[in-house]
Amino acid sequence: MINIKTEKEIKLMEESADILKLVLKEIEKNIKPGITTAYLDYIAEDVMKKNGAKPSFKGVPCPYRGGKPFSYAICTSVNDDIIHGIPSSRVLLDGDIVSVDLGVYKNGFHSDAGRTYAVGNVSDIAKKLIKTAEEAFFEGINYARPGNRVGDISNAIETYVKSKGFSLLEEYQGHGIGRQMHEDPGVPNIGKKDTGPRLQSGMALAIEPMICEGKADVYVKEDMWTVATVDKKLTAYYENTIIITENETKILTF
Question: Does the global pTM surpass 0.85?
Answer without folding.
Answer: yes
